[in-house]
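Weekly structure sync, notes
Attendees: PL (lead), two postdocs, one rotation student
Agenda item 3: pending single-chain targets
PL asked that the sequence for the first pending target be pasted directly into the notes so everyone works from the same version. It is reproduced below exactly as submitted, 281 residues in total.
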Amino acid sequence: MLISILLPDEWQLCINGIKKGEEIIVISASPTSSTSSCPCCQAVSERVHSIYQRRPADLPLAGYTVCLDITVRRFFCDNLSCERTIFAERMPSLIAPYARRTNRLANQQQRVAFALGGEAGSSLLTIMGMTVSPDTLLRLIRRAAEPKLRTSRGVDDWAKRKGQSYGTILVDLLSDKSAESFAKWLKEHTGVEIISRDRGVEYIKGATEGAPDAIQVADRWHLLTNLRDALKQMLECLKAAVNKAQHIEASAKEQEKPSFFHVEQPNEDTKMTNMAVSDAY
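Predicted structure, written out during the meeting:
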């Protein structure tokens, strides 16, 4: 059982010997397969040209640093149309070409690098028996494959604060407007924290089923639209009362209008007085 942990079956290696030092364990191993495939033309060959040793570092064991001493063979490629005549056998499940650490050790170091970065990650890995430099950890981060994400089907803009701050929305169009499709999409894209929706029953059901921990909110546009429609419906029901109120207000304004001043015509005595004053001047 211990051997299957040290050397998994998919590695196709057999242990030839184990040497223990003060702080290191060296495991000598060799391939169990008698043939290998050319990396260029995939032709299978069993003619061995030569051998050499690879000594990659592996995961530590019980406080010991582990190193593999692997006997690697070079084969002749018998395909005359192939550009290679000699190739080294590949062990993709164990180690990458030219690498100095096994895949499983590199994966562990890469995870620590993503969590802590270069300097802090290097300090922690040294304590754990997986010594590596900060620069190597940064290279492992850069070599990490990007996650495969399905491309969104549309792009739109939205305003955080109209006229001042804007953002971009990536739109993924669903085939229909059912709660089942919406819930399925949410389950396939975990991590949604806020769902902005209208008051449609299908969206409420889909959001609740697909992302029960997400906060559901109604956007400002739908709130204002719903308020306008509610006010319009209420005023339509009170149309007669509104018309009567308008008529009363119009009548009150007519009564409040000021009347014209009456200018009194001068009598005969006033006219004679005015003429005498005028003759005196």
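Discussion points:
- The first strand starts at residue 13 and ends at 20.
- Residues 1-97 form one domain.
Action: rotation student to compare against the earlier draft before next sync.
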